[in-house]
Design a protein that fits this description.
Radius of gyration: 18 Å
Low-confidence stretches: none
Structural class: mainly alpha
Shape: elongated
Length: 164
């Protein structure tokens, strides 16, 4: 089980939860008659989905190139995709693919689903990050200071004050 966690982290559980929440969103969309995002803009929705899907594929490939399977859980990788995201594979799924899919499906309930998944995955990755802190105590804490979980940290970083 520990080897499975080392190789796959929170991904398997997160995927199951994401699919279940997606099915719940689809059910409530029909039950509550939640309105469409955009009526008559199919081409725009397909274009947005295509852009976000392409970005997610690029992130997946970049992530796999940055972290070789044999190194997972054995070495702290801080280069490539991991220099911007602590969890680039999850970021590709959460930040890009899910929002593109939500726009393509053209219903506000799916936008809500994509938003709700972020805090869910934050909770799921807490155990994974605790394991990484135990494995790489000082290095991982320093890495976390400079790298965002699912979004690059520099997006939210306050500008540094320059020394006078």
């Amino acid at each position: 089980m520990i080897e499975f966690k080392r190789l796959f982290g929170s991904g398997f559980n997160g995927l199951i939860i994401s699919v279940l929440l997606f099915l719940a969103a689809a059910y409530f969309k029909d039950l509550l008659k939640i309105p469409m995002i955009c009526d008559g803009c199919f081409l725009l929705r397909v274009s947005v989905f295509t852009l976000f899907f392409t970005m997610s594929i690029i992130m997946f490939v970049w992530s796999f190139m940055s972290l070789k399977p044999g190194l997972r859980g054995k070495t702290l990788i801080t280069r490539g995709a991991f220099s911007h995201f602590r969890h680039p594979l999850y970021a590709a799924f959460l930040t890009f693919f899910n929002f593109g899919l939500a726009v393509l499906l053209n219903n506000w309930v799916f936008i809500g689903w994509a938003i709700i998944l972020h805090p869910v995955w934050h909770l799921l990755t807490a155990e994974e990050e605790k394991m990484l802190k135990n494995t790489f105590p000082n290095d991982y804490e320093e890495y976390c200071k400079n790298t965002g979980r699912f979004l690059p940290k520099y997006i939210f970083r306050k500008p540094r004050k320059r020394d006078a």
